[in-house]
Structure formats: structure tokens, C-alpha cells
């Protein structure tokens, strides 16, 4: 596996983890902008992983 793929997977995993953390913290303290940001971070991380799987 190339270094590029490893780096993309790592960054995507970090983005998903950050999104989950934002969701957890925001839901613990009540609803707010963190819910939207958390979902966007999760979506961006999952999107990166899906794009990485796509054959060119």
C-alpha cells in the first residue's frame, strides 16, 4: 500500500473520530451547531474513504 493511501485513511479516520466527538459533546450539553459540524466531519471522512476505494 502506498504512503498516500495510508495517509488518506489516517486523515479520514481522524475526521470521523472528531465528528463523533463533536456529536457526543454537543448532545451531552444540548443541541447546537456541533451536531451539524459533527455530521459534516463524519460525512467528509466517509466520503474520503469511499473515494479511495473507487477504481480509476
Explain the overall architecture:
By secondary structure, this protein is mainly alpha-helical. It has one domain (3-53). The chain is built from 2 helices and no strands. The chain has helices at 3-28, 33-53. The two termini are 16 Å apart. The model has no long low-confidence stretch (mean pLDDT 93).
Outline:
The chain has 56 residues and is mostly helical. It is 84% helix and 0% strand. The chain contains two helices and no strands.
Task: Give the key terms.
elongated, 2 helices, 84% helix, 56 residues, mainly alpha
Helical segment tally? 2
- How many beta-strand runs? 0
Shape: elongated
Return the string of H and E elements.
Answer: HH
- Radius of gyration equals 13 Å
Report low-confidence residues grouped into runs of 5 or more.
none
Please report the distance between the alpha carbons of the first and last residues: 16 Å
Largest sheet: none
Q: Give the class from helix and strand content and strand pairing.
A: mainly alpha
What percent of residues are in strands?
under 5%
SSE order and pairing:
Blueprint: H1 3-28, H2 33-53
Helix pairs in contact: 1-2
